[in-house]
Design goal:
Layout: H1 2-10, H2 12-58, E1 60-63, E2 72-75, H3 80-107, H4 109-113, H5 120-124, H6 130-154, E3 157-158, H7 163-181, H8 192-215, E4 219-221, H9 231-235, H10 244-273, E5 287-295, E6 299-300, E7 304-305, E8 375-387, H11 391-399, E9 404-413, H12 416-421, E10 431-443, H13 444-447, H14 453-459, H15 468-477
Parallel strand pairs: 3-4, 4-5
Antiparallel strand pairs: 1-2, 5-8, 6-7, 8-10, 9-10
Length: about 475
């Protein structure tokens, strides 16, 4: 033992360093174990965070936006940035909807506030009775005939010269050429060469006549293609007091159809003018000729509208559907039995909620629009001849006219030479026969003010009770 202690004293440094080495080995073992545990815990924590991030990356959120039938679904997570973007989108959608509504009402302001008091629709308000109807049916037909004539003049549209007109002018030209140019008394004395010259002169004059007529028009549109109410149609209206609702619906539909025609023809005129201050003649304009305009009846069976949808508020079993009607055949009954006067109470203002949701049905069209409590939809099929290269310009002009949307279109070749034989001059550019299906939208916020009682009933529109002064005036008027 003494020898060990002596050795230790002699080798103190060696003993100390050996102790340090042993302590380091022991301490390192236990320290590494603790360090490994810390690293393991941090690694597990990071793995959990990576898993959460992966779930967020692969997760989805569902957001509903006004105007969309189905909610929007996308990858991500609800956070402050998403909430702020959603809030901004809602504000933009709300502002756009307000602008559209104001634009619609402003576009039709003259129809609502400056409405012609001579119009049959204006005379329906505040009341209609059988006695009044007996006078109104004839004045209505004359009123619309005058309004359509004014509309055609306004858009510089008209029919091509008739064969009778052309033949009369060519006959005068023929006689003048024979007597003045050839100095002959009659056609029988003409030589073959002179007859050939006469034929050429008449052909040139005929082309000149139809081109001169075309220069005065924006586009061809025969009034007979517009479905203008005829005297026969007016006479066929039943005046029986029990059918007064059907009578009201027919006259209101005449007015509604005129509004549609007005927008259509103004749209075609805008396409031809393209902002020009002076008339752009048909020969140089995109739209050449309107062949037909077919407006689908609004309702079927009193509730379902022509585009296949139905008004949610429409009352079933109400008055007969209203829409386009064909003139009666000759000999059809033309008189009803006015019998006793059936006075109607004054109509109050229509109860329209412009903020209500307008549901969409995309099975009907790509716009999804169908008639509802906010607006009504009416379909129109138009067949027209247009310069082929300018068809997009025409469609664009129509889409800018009072919420019209082109739903479908077909294009076929048009024969300008065959048209020239019929008296139409289309110019030198290639032309096509275009058939389009349009969707027109009518906000009830202004149209319902003109609707008679039975029309409001068919569409399910309630009325705010008329004030006492209004009722008194109605009673006095009856």
């Amino acid at each position: 033992m003494k020898q060990v202690m002596t050795w230790v004293k002699e080798h103190v440094l060696v003993v100390v360093f050996c102790g340090v080495v042993i302590a380091a080995l022991v301490g390192g073992f236990f320290g590494s174990a603790s360090f490994n545990e810390t690293v393991r815990l941090k690694a597990e924590e990071q793995a959990l965070r990576y898993g959460e991030l992966a779930r967020v990356e692969n997760g989805s959120i569902t957001i509903s936006l006004p105007g969309l039938t189905e909610p929007f679904t996308g990858k991500g997570v609800i956070n402050d940035a998403v909430v702020q973007q959603y809030s901004r989108a809602i504000v933009v959608i709300s502002e756009d909807a307000t602008k559209i509504q104001r634009a619609a009402l402003q576009r039709n302001l003259n129809r609502r506030e400056g409405f012609d008091p001579k119009s049959p629709v204006a005379q329906f308000l505040p009341q209609v009775n059988a006695e009044k109807a007996s006078l109104l049916r004839y004045s209505a037909q004359k009123f619309f005939a005058a309004e359509y004539a004014r509309l055609l003049e306004e858009v510089h549209a008209g029919a091509a010269p008739s064969n009778t007109e052309v033949m009369k002018l060519l006959e005068a030209s023929r006689l003048n050429f024979i007597n003045q140019d050839l100095r002959k008394s009659d056609a029988a004395s003409l030589t073959p060469e002179e007859q050939s010259k006469l034929d050429q002169r008449l052909a040139t004059n005929r082309i000149g006549l139809i081109e001169t007529a075309a220069l005065a028009l924006s586009f061809y549109c025969d009034p007979r293609e517009l479905g203008i109410p005829s005297e026969a149609a007016a006479k066929a209206l039943s005046l029986d007091s029990k059918d007064l609702g059907t009578y009201e619906q027919t006259l209101f539909d005449w007015q509604w159809r005129f509004w549609i025609m007005e927008d259509l023809l103004h749209g075609f005129y805008a396409a031809n003018q393209a902002g020009a201050k002076e008339l752009v003649p048909e020969i140089r304009a995109p739209v050449k000729r309107i062949l037909s305009i077919d407006i689908a009846p609004f309702a079927k069976g009193g509730s379902a509208n022509a585009e296949g949808g139905s008004s949610e508020n429409a009352s079933s079993g109400s008055a007969a559907s209203f829409g386009a009607s064909e003139p009666p055949a000759e000999g059809a009954p033309t008189e009803g039995a006015p019998a006793t006067v059936v006075a109607r109470a004054a109509l109050g203002s229509p109860n329209i909620d412009a903020t209500a949701e307008a549901p969409r049905d995309y099975s009907k069209s790509f716009t999804g629009r169908t008639s509802n409590s906010v607006y009504d939809v009416r379909r129109v099929t138009v067949v027209f001849v247009a310069e082929t290269a300018a068809i997009p310009t025409v469609l664009d002009a129509l889409s800018k006219e009072n919420f019209m949307t082109v739903l479908d279109m077909s294009v076929a070749r048009a024969d300008p030479f065959a048209a020239a034989v019929q008296g139409f001059a289309y110019g030198v550019e290639p032309v096509s026969l275009v058939t389009i299906e349009l969707e027109t939208v009518w906000f009830r916020e202004w149209t319902a003010h003109f609707m008679p009682e039975s029309v409001r009933g068919v569409l399910g529109i309630t009325s705010i009770a008329a004030t006492a002064p209004e009722a008194s005036e109605a009673a006095a008027g009856s």
